[in-house]
């Protein structure tokens, strides 16, 4: 393994793949990409609907769990993050969604100069290849984006129901207006998922100046006389240091990047000292400010299997769907968990939607267990026709944290999202649930949607709905904000994504977000990484 390298990147997820490709494209700068997982060979990665089978895969994910909390009725939640080439873009729901322009303008107003909507739009355009084109869209980037390959007939009726409750329908989910009903766009080309690894990393592998070091656990950043000079790794039981001449860039995600910084002695001094980690710099902001979207799923009974895909993925019919996928790239196996989305404002005076409702014409069987509200067996369809909608708050007020549980880099950190910790968040979620009910009971769906099966009539009061939200909700897999950029001294990063107080060290991934955007976050991560590549090369 040669070295030193000009740039050493930790994490082969969405941001890391972008950086590896962009920083090596001059043919001169030597780049090493360190990834804990292996190559993206598993077949379920490449089948869009395969996400349901790999979210808990012991080799492709980190197997994280959250700390039990009052906001989740004292439940510990699965918290999947990708551990494979492409990271979470190899296991996610393929949703390609831009945030609301005000998201990024708020970043700029908080002192993140150069990160407003007008600044980031060129990078959204740079990364995407959307054949549909349209105002503000990119058509020649590495990341293929396509409309649904198999469009359920229910979507037209859902759109009419949205109009019936006074909300608009948008032709392009990522067009100029981000409010109302729209159909999902997917990071897909034909039948196959196009992860960041497939879009960026694989095409760059032929370059001799790019080296991928996979199956390698990053142990700590090596800091010499105030400068990051490399990364210590363990690979095949052997520890070594991958040296960096110019910069070390952490792209290990909103969980992995703060964990690695803290293992390196950069973080809350008292907590690090308690674990016996020598403190290089007291930085309480590292690991703080964790934000995520918290989803509550409602189930609805449909009049017939004409409207639902439940029967299409069960028993002898599933092989037929597999043949459709293989032969012509259509069918249920091209689906993602979100086939449609509704963005809406549920309170006066808001500049952007505060609720997002996603879903598709599939419903899942309830898991056996005690309690008023059983969980769901995601991936196991109900026998009867049904659909699911998931409601979440776009800009939660609640803030959680990531902290070390052990000085051992192989041990998972403590993840405490602290969902529904504020009264404002709780009130917003209840408004969102009631909006979903109003939509799904609108006249254009009469005779199609026959009943709400979950939570159903047993949950009518605000207290009932909040109880249901706490007992059944979960992550939408959008953690961010744990190594935020900002102008204030508590922000670990400056607006160029450089770690304060340590030269030659940047962070580029969802952890840098000051605030969570009104969207599924992968498209924003790609755009942040595209801009970061320019900042690094400058």
From TrEMBL:
Entry keyword annotation includes Flavoprotein: yes
The record's listing under InterPro entries reads:
FAD/NAD-bd_sf (IPR036188), GMC_OxRdtase (IPR012132), GMC_OxRdtase_N (IPR000172), GMC_OxRtase_C (IPR007867)
The cofactor required is: FAD
* Binding residue positions for FAD: 84
One GO molecular function term of this record is:
flavin adenine dinucleotide binding
Listed A to Z, the keywords are: FAD, Flavoprotein
Segments forming domain Glucose-methanol-choline oxidoreductase N-terminal = 253-267
The record ties this protein, via Pfam families, to: GMC_oxred_C (PF05199), GMC_oxred_N (PF00732)
Q: Which domain of life is it from?
A: Bacteria
What stretch or stretches form a coiled coil here? none
Q: Which family does it belong to?
A: Belongs to the GMC oxidoreductase family.
Name it.
Choline oxidase
């Amino acid at each position: 393994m040669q070295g030193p390298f000009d740039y050493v990147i930790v994490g082969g997820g969405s941001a890391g793949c972008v950086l590896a490709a962009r920083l090596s494209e001059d043919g001169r700068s030597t780049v090493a990409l360190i990834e804990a997982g292996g190559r993206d060979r598993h077949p379920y990665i490449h089948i869009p609907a395969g996400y349901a089978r790999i979210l808990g895969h012991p080799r492709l994910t980190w197997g994280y769990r959250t700390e039990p909390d009052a906001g989740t009725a004292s439940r510990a939640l699965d918290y999947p993050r990708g551990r494979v080439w492409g990271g979470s873009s190899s296991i996610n729901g393929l949703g390609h969604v831009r945030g609301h322009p005000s998201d990024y303008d708020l970043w700029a107003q908080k002192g993140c100069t150069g990160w407003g909507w007008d600044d980031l739009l060129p990078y959204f355009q740079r990364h995407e290849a959307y054949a549909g084109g349209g105002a503000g869209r990119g058509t020649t980037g590495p990341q293929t984006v396509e409309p649904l390959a198999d469009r359920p007939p229910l979507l037209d009726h859902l759109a009419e129901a949205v109009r019936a409750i006074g909300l608009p329908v948008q032709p392009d989910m990522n067009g100029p207006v981000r409010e109302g009903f729209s159909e999902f766009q997917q990071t897909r080309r034909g039948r196959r998922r196009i992860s960041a690894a497939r879009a960026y990393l694989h095409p760059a592998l032929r370059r001799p100046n790019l080296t991928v070091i996979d199956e390698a656990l990053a142990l700590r950043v090596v800091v010499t006389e105030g400068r990051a000079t490399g990364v210590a790794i363990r690979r095949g039981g052997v520890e070594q240091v991958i040296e960096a001449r110019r910069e070390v860039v952490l792209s290990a995600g909103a969980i992995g990047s703060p964990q690695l910084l803290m293992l390196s002695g950069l973080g809350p001094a008292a907590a690090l000292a308690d674990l016996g980690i020598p403190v290089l710099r007291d930085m309480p902001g590292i690991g703080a400010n964790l934000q995520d979207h918290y989803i509550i799923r409602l189930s609805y009974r449909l009049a017939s299997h004409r409207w639902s895909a439940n029967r299409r993925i069960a028993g002898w019919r599933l092989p037929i769907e597999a043949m459709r996928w293989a032969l012509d790239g259509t069918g249920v196996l091209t689906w993602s968990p979100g086939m449609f989305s509704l963005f809406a404002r549920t309170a006066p005076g808001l500049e952007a939607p505060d609720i997002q409702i996603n879903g598709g014409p599939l419903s899942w069987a309830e898991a056996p267990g005690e309690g008023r509200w059983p969980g769901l067996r995601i991936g196991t369809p109900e026998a009867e026709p049904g659909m699911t909608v998931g409601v979440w708050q776009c800009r939660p007020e609640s803030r959680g944290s990531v902290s070390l549980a052990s000085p051992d880099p192989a041990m998972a950190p403590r993840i405490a999202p602290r969902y529904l910790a504020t009264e404002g968040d709780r009130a917003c979620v209840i408004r969102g649930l009631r909006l979903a009910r109003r939509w799904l009971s609108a006249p254009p769906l009469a005779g199609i949607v026959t009943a709400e099966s979950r939570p159903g009539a047993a949950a009518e009061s605000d207290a009932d709905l909040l109880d249901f939200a706490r007992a059944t909700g979960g992550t939408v897999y959008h953690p961010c904000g744990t190594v935020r950029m900002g102008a204030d001294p508590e922000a670990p990063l400056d607006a160029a994504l450089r770690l304060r107080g340590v030269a030659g060290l940047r962070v580029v991934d969802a952890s840098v977000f000051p605030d969570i955007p009104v969207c599924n976050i992968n498209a924003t991560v790609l755009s942040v990484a595209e801009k970061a590549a320019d900042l690094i090369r400058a």
